[in-house]
């Protein structure tokens, strides 16, 4: 460490935390909270950037994916959600036929996609084989594509609805082609907040246990955190620590993804959205607290493109992907584009001074030549 950051870290009251990080000692709850309370955002970012560069150097990852929300019918009533419709006949409710869902992939036959990311509402009337057939159909169209589908909340819902165990559901989905679990549905693990914003869907212990079982079955997964609403700094760090504890047990999480709350068209619409400064800090603190999760992802749809670029100097090493047809954030007021090409993502990473690396879902490098040809 040179003298400039040392004096700055001292003024920011972060010298002891820097020493711990230097010694490879993990941070605890009170230190995580102090990182949120420190007035010096750049000092926090500098520490996070050091950890990021230790792991990944200048590399910044992204992938070529599509997002598919096959239905927005959902029996849960999460206060933050603008996407869900309670019943099939409600205004704006939709459920794709399997053919319609498969068409989303068929019509992109010429794109070198590596991932389909599916997140649905909790539909009370569909049969289980809608989901297994959905996966089988995708695999028929593109056997090589990775299927990152269904949050732990959906897995819990399927298990209860179809009278199966969580493990049986996961095994049946793997048999149909499931490759990994996305991190959605985590929201905030602290019971005080979860009771208020997501009272009628699977609780924290079950969410974590489904990831535990998935990891035991050999699946990798992600874990998210919805921030910028009613949670405290302590509850944010507690959330990270619960993810860290499960990661100590299983090692199955690939990425931690803070998700910025979007307030339009939902029951928490009176709240302001989190500021750019808060977003940069949340990602930085996640990098510092989560010493055992390889990647911290800024979901550019949620953070906004410019903040996502900046976050690459605040602990973030991954920007998710091309996405295409995202609905959950756009119905809640996101003003980002609904998709980007791989070339656009690579360009914005390079413009931020980082080295773009296209990856597949499991973080294997993909040599697509996007920087040269830019055709996708
Ligand atoms: O669980 C819903 C969030 C999540 C709002 O695993 C909202 O790679 C903000 O989990 N404001 C689904 N957030 C999306 C998700 C995700 C996204 C990108 C990558 C991955 C991954 C996972 O979206 C939900 C919920 O936390 N959400 N409504 C809203 N108004």
What attributes characterize this protein structure?
376 residues; alpha/beta; 4-stranded parallel sheet; 15 helices; disordered C terminus
- Radius of gyration over all CA atoms, rounded: 20 Å
Name the hetero compounds present: ligand V47
Instruction: Output the CATH class name.
Output: Alpha Beta
> Mean of the pLDDT scores?
95
Shape label: globular
Counting DSSP E segments of at least 2 residues, the number of strands comes to 10
Which structural category fits the helices and strands? Answer: alpha/beta
- Helicity, in percent? 40-55%
- Secondary-structure element sequence? HHHHEEHEHEHHEHHEHEHEHHEHE
CATH superfamily: Aldolase class I
- Please give the domain count: 1
Q: Biggest sheet: strands side by side, in what order?
A: 5-6-7-8
Q: Tell me what portion of residues adopts beta-strand conformation.
A: 5-15%
Do you know the CATH architecture?
Answer: Alpha-Beta Barrel
Q: At the third CATH level, what is the topology name?
A: TIM Barrel
What is the straight-line distance between the termini? 42 Å
Low-confidence stretches: 371-376
How many helix segments?
15
């Amino acid at each position: 460490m040179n003298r400039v950051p040392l004096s700055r870290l001292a003024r920011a009251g972060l010298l002891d935390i820097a020493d711990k990080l230097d010694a490879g000692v993990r941070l605890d709850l009170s230190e995580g909270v102090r990182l949120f309370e420190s007035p010096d955002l750049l000092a926090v970012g500098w520490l996070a950037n050091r950890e990021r560069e230790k792991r990944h150097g200048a590399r910044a990852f992204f992938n070529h994916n599509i997002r598919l929300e096959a239905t927005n019918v959902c029996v849960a009533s999460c206060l933050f959600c603008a996407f869900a419709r309670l019943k099939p006949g409600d205004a704006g409710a939709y459920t794709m036929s399997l053919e319609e869902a498969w068409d989303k992939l068929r019509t992109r036959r010429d794109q070198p996609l590596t991932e389909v990311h599916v997140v649905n509402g909790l539909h009370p009337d569909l049969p289980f084989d809608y989901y297994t057939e959905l996966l089988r159909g995708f695999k028929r169209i593109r056997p090589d594509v990775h299927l990152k589908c269904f949050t732990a909340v959906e897995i819990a819902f399927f298990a209860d609805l179809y009278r199966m165990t969580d493990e049986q559901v996961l095994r049946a989905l793997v048999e149909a082609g499931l490759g990994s679990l996305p991190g959605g549905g985590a929201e905030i693990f602290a019971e005080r907040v979860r009771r208020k914003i997501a009272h009628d869907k699977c609780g924290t212990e079950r969410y974590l246990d489904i990831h535990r079982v998935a990891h035991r079955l050999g699946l990798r997964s992600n874990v998210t955190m919805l921030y910028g609403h009613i949670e405290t700094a302590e509850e944010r760090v507690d959330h990270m620590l619960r993810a860290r504890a499960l990661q100590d047990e299983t090692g199955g999480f690939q990425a931690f993804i803070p998700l910025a709350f979007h307030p339009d068209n939902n029951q928490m619409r009176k709240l302001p959205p989190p500021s750019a400064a808060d977003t940069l800090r949340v990602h930085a603190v996640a990098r510092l607290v989560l010493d055992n999760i390889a990647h911290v992802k800024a979901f550019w749809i949620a953070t906004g493109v410019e903040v996502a670029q900046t976050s690459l100097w605040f602990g973030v090493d991954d920007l998710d992907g091309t996405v295409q047809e995202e609905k959950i954030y756009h119905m809640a007021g996101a003003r980002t584009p609904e998709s980007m090409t791989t070339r656009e993502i690579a360009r914005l990473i390079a413009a931020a001074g980082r080295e773009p690396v296209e990856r597949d879902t499991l973080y294997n490098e993909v040599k697509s030549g996007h920087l040269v040809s830019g055709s996708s």
